[in-house]
Write a structure and sequence with these properties.
- The complex is a heterodimer of chains A (313) and B (160).
- Chain A has 313 residues and is of the alpha/beta class.
- Chain A folds into two domains: 134 residues, Rossmann fold (3-Layer(aba) Sandwich), CATH 3.40.50; 157 residues, Rossmann fold.
- Helices cover 39% and strands 14% of the residues of chain A.
- In chain A, the strands form two sheets. In chain A, strands 7-6-5-8-9 form a five-stranded parallel beta sheet.
- In chain A, α5 packs across α6 and α5 crosses α12.
- Chain B is 17% helix and 32% strand.
- Chain B is built from three helices and nine strands.
- Chain B has a five-stranded antiparallel beta sheet, covered by helices on one side. Chain B has a four-stranded antiparallel beta sheet with strand order 6-7-8-9.
- In chain B, α1 runs antiparallel to α2.
- Chain B is elongated and about 50 Å long.
- Chain B starts with 13 loop residues before the first strand and ends with a helix.
- The chains are: A alpha/beta (313), B alpha+beta (160).
């Protein structure tokens, strides 16, 4: 049934169909239940998974490591290029070849866009992209869609808002592409003009016939939304800091804004880490979905690992 | 002052490249490696009226035939061009150029953090053609889109 996943590289969410994602969610549901019942699993016993994080990561790396260990797999790897042979001048390609020789699957993160696709060309074993520069973060998008599916019980017909850095943020970019797989009612893309989505993403949305609306104002559209996906607006993206100071307040999600403007069943998501784009007073409201979203990271990544290695169960 | 139908005289044998976008004739010559010092008789017609393009350029080169490899490159700066082979003052074959669906190694990705720009990695830039009216290519690694102006700049340099 899940034959289409086995041995596949996971580079971009665009490489997957809705059927593929249904198989993923089905298995993630199963793993979620096992986690909640503290049932030990030996699904991937005897497998070794490489976690090659050429760029620092906390959540993605730890949830992949947890996912691998919960399935009984062994884990090798590193975080940040410091301390590896890359410091001695070894090429990225050679490092990938080495990891490919040691392990059955490589999860990687790199600051260069396209690093995962290039690794997949070199490696014989499957490669899972844990984030390549500003481009893709497919497993985050799987988790985000899974969260919506669990909390809203559907992925179609929703008004989804994506707020923040839509230009350089890989999580936002992958999420936007992920929603395009479903018949979203309207996609509201909310950002300052300099952080609007890139042309390559726009072309895809247009090709897929997605109805989207770009705006600078959260206040204007928040009452229409069923889902609000928040990402951080990074200071360093603004050539002029006073420009940043001007806009940052208007992209802040507060309890007051939600209670006065939002639909009562709106869910607020965030790939985390958050800094101050969602105020802490939202945490204990019914809108908050970001901690659940983070929690779903493990069962979804368990499903990814076991499907790609062809050992679900 | 100018003859209405024939701006420059016909050539006996060689190549006529027609329907070049206005202002790109020099880029086409550059891709063919023609500097003028080779001694070929070359005629350049720029910014003449064209039904299809509005304005166009034409290049006529006596004694030179364009091979496949050069034709592929010319198609990137003149996607609508036609290549006419002339023998005895007569067009003996006419070929409409078509930019390829995929490119390997011809262009450099403009994104400085694309994996193909990382020094000392054994990776060749590859691109797919983007559907649509304008000629554009997209990097298969980082998805960056390369515009037609950028393609001309990379292949023929800033001055054309």
């Amino acid at each position: 049934m899940h034959g289409s996943w086995k041995g596949r590289d996971v580079i971009s969410i665009l490489d997957f169909s809705r059927d593929d994602l249904d198989a993923l969610y089905y298995l993630a549901d199963k793993y979620l239940e096992k986690i909640q019942n503290a049932t030990p699993l030996r699904t991937l016993e005897g497998f070794v998974i490489s976690l090659a994080f050429f760029e620092p990561s906390t959540r993605t790396r730890m949830s992949f490591e947890t996912a691998a260990k919960r399935l009984g797999a062994g884990v090798i790897g590193f975080t940040a290029a410091a301390g590896t042979s890359l410091e001695k001048g070894e090429s990225y390609a050679d490092t990938i070849r080495m990891l490919d020789g040691y392990s059955d699957l490589i999860v990687l993160r790199h600051k260069y866009e396209g690093a995962a696709r290039f690794a997949a060309e070199i490696a014989k074993h499957p490669v899972v992209n844990g984030g390549d520069g500003k481009q893709h973060h497919p497993t985050q998008a799987f988790i985000d869609l899974y969260t919506i599916r669990r909390l809203k019980e559907r992925l179609e017909g929703l008004n989804i808002g994506v707020l923040g850095d839509l230009r350089y943020g890989r999580a936002a970019n992958s999420f936007i592409l992920g929603t395009a797989l479903y018949r979203t009612n309207t996609l509201y893309l909310i950002s300052p003009p300099q952080l609007r989505m890139r042309d390559e993403t726009r072309i895809i949305l247009e090709d897929l016939g997605v109805r989207f609306y770009e705006t600078e104002s959260l206040e204007d559209v928040v009452s229409d939304l069923d889902v609000l996906y928040v990402t951080r607006i990074q200071k360093e993206r603004f050539p002029d800091l006073s420009e940043y100071e001007k806009v940052k307040g208007s992209y802040r999600v507060t309890r007051r804004l939600l209670e006065t403007r939002a639909k009562p069943d709106l869910i607020v998501m965030h790939p985390l880490p958050r800094v101050d784009e969602i105020s802490y007073d939202v945490d204990d409201t019914r809108y908050q979905a970001y901690f659940k979203q983070a929690y779903y990271g493990v069962p979804v990544r368990m499903a990814v690992l076991s499907l790609v290695l062809g050992k679900e169960g | 002052m100018v003859e209405k139908h024939l701006l420059v005289s016909r050539i006996e044998k060689g190549t006529v490249i027609d329907h070049i976008p206005a202002g790109r004739a020099l880029a086409v010559l550059k891709l063919l490696g023609i500097t003028g010092r080779e001694g070929y008789r070359v005629a350049l017609v720029m910014n003449v009226e064209s039904g299809r393009l509005g304005k166009k350029d034409i290049v006529k080169i006596e004694g030179v035939y364009v091979d496949e490899e050069h034709a592929k490159k010319i198609a990137l700066v003149a996607p609508e061009a036609t290549l006419n082979r002339i023998e005895n003052y007569v067009v003996v074959s006419k070929k409409k150029l078509e930019p390829p669906e995929e490119l390997e190694g011809t262009l450099t990705c403009t994104n400085p953090t694309c994996i193909t720009r990382k020094p000392r990695e054994p990776v060749t830039p590859r691109f797919y053609r983007v559907r649509g009216k304008k000629l554009r290519y997209q990097c298969i690694y980082c998805s960056t889109i390369i515009s037609e102006e950028e393609i001309v700049r990379q292949l023929a340099g800033e001055h054309v």
